[in-house]
Structure formats: structure tokens, C-alpha cells
Amino acid sequence: MLTIFGVPAPLLFGQVLLGLINGAFYALLSLGLAIIFGLLGIINFAHGALFMMGAFVAWMLLNYVGIGYWWALLLAPIIVGAFGLVLERSIIRRLYGLDHLYGLLLTFGLALVIEGLFRNQYGSSGLPYQIPHALQGATNLGFMFLPNYRGWVVAAALVVCLATWIVIDKTPLGARLRAATENAPLVQAFGVNVPRMVSLTYAGGVALAAFAGVLAAPIDSVNPNMGTYFINIVFAVVVIGGMGSIIGSIVTGFGLGVVEGLTKVFWPEASGAVVFFVMVIVLLVRPAGLFGKTA
């Protein structure tokens, strides 16, 4: 059997794949957080709960309405994004201009309320969500078997992340969004509806979390606690990449997922803490993060 650094190749590549899968979720979730913080200045601690809500909406669409996975990928982000729009217009917008701590505390409370409501209704044991028929099975790559669905998760997350980066950084819409965060009154004087733009930005960040939730539903059981595992790591990813940095969230999310996967092979005891160890090192060397703007 082929070995690399004394490790069987299937084991090594399998852990790299698992790392890429986790990295896909880290990237999608941290991307939504980076958009919301970078453009709105809100530390959205409810992001993990909204990720969980996306998975539950996909499950409910299947079991109550008969709508399968492919339509859920489109409808769940829209539904949860609409919920985020209501949150922004009724609660979140009251925090603009205040200290970031108020946003952190409010969204933390929202997360507890949302998770509590789903836990009260569905319990904590988890609900199954089947992999779509077209993505079942695995592909033999020669050195390992690649589960088709897991390969799809990585590819879909990468496409969505890159498309979001292009929209924010390379289009007139993204330019208006960035300008609105720098000087909202001036942008509004040019006829741009800044409040509506801000609301849609928050809804878009929430929709990214819901999209990640739908991707995660067939891998993990759908349960109210599924966002709790990711949210602490995702905040570390955002800090390492640079608060508000779109490309930093994407690169750091996938990169740290691979680092975490390799750590499980070579130093399993440290796999749970390696992300935070990297965060400490980065903050000591570059406090603004790898892609953050220095003052």
C-alpha cells in the first residue's frame, strides 16, 4: 500500500477530504459573517442558528411539502434570508452606530431563542435527511474512493464563495455596497436606497448560512445544536482571515479545514485546538488578520 510520510495514502487523502468538507462549511459561514460585519458592522452571533434553520427548512420542505433537495438548495436560503430581512428591519437596524458589543449580545440572545424554539418542537436527537439519489455512491480515484456527495459539497461551496467574492469586489453593486459603508449619506445623495441595500446585505449573509445548512443536512443529522459546533471555529476563521475580508474568509476557511484534517492524522490530540492555536499565532504576528486592513 502506498504511504506518504509513513501514513497510508487512503487515510491521508481521506482526512484531507474531510478537512475540505469542514473547510467548505467554514468558508460559507465565515463569508456570511464577513459580509455582515464588513458592510454593516454587526457581529452576528446568530449565524450558527440560521445555519441550523437552513437545514431544518430543507427537512420541512421535504417532509411537509414534498420538495426535495435540489429545490431546497434554492428555496431554503430564500426563506431563511427573508426571515433575516425581517430580523434586520425589526431588531438589528437599531444597533447601527452602537458599540459592537451590543450587536454581539443581541444576536447571541437571538441564537438562544431560535435554537430553543426548534429544540422544543423537534427535540435534540436529530432528524435524518437522505442524500439525493443523483449524488449517492462513490467514485474510485485510484488512490481513494471519493463519496460523490462530499465532492459535491466542496465544489458547490467553492463556486458560491467565488461568485459572492466577484459580486462584492468586482461589480458595480459591490462598489455601491462598499461605498455605502464608508459614507452612507453621500451614496444616498446619488439616489441609492441605502437602508434597503443594508437590509438585503444582511439577508444575503443569512442566506449563505442557510445554503450551508442545506449542504450539511445529508451529512449530519438535522438537529438544533448543529450550528453550535461550527460557530466558535467560524469566528476564529473570520479573525484569522481579517474581520470583514471576503477573500480572507474563503481562503482561511478552506485552508484551516485542510490543516485541521491533517492534524487529525499526525497529531490527533491537537485537532480540536489547532484552529485556535493558529488564531493566536496570527494575532501575535498580524493583529488585523492575514487579509485584514492595518490601521
Cα-to-Cα separation, first versus last residue: 52 Å
Cα Rg = 19 Å
Give the low-pLDDT segments.
none
What is the overall pLDDT average?
A: 86
Looking at the structure, what is the overall shape? globular
Q: What is the total tally of β strands? A: 4
Fold and architecture overview:
With 295 residues, this protein is mainly alpha-helical. It has 2 domains: 31-224, no CATH class; 231-295, no CATH class. It contains 11 helices and 4 strands, in the order ββααααββααααααα. A two-stranded antiparallel ribbon has the order 1-2. Strand 3 (138-140) and strand 4 form a beta hairpin.
Give the topology.
Layout: E1 3-4, E2 7-8, H1 9-40, H2 47-65, H3 69-90, H4 100-122, E3 138-140, E4 145-147, H5 148-170, H6 172-182, H7 184-189, H8 194-216, H9 226-241, H10 246-266, H11 274-285
Helix pairs in contact: 1-5, 1-8, 1-9, 1-10, 2-3, 2-4, 2-8, 2-9, 3-8, 5-6, 9-10, 9-11
Which structural traits does this protein have?
295 residues, two-stranded antiparallel ribbon, 3% strand, 2 domains, mainly alpha
Characterize this entry briefly.
The protein is mostly helical and 295 residues long. The chain has eleven helices and four strands, in the order ββααααββααααααα. The strands form two sheets. A two-stranded antiparallel sheet has the order 1-2.
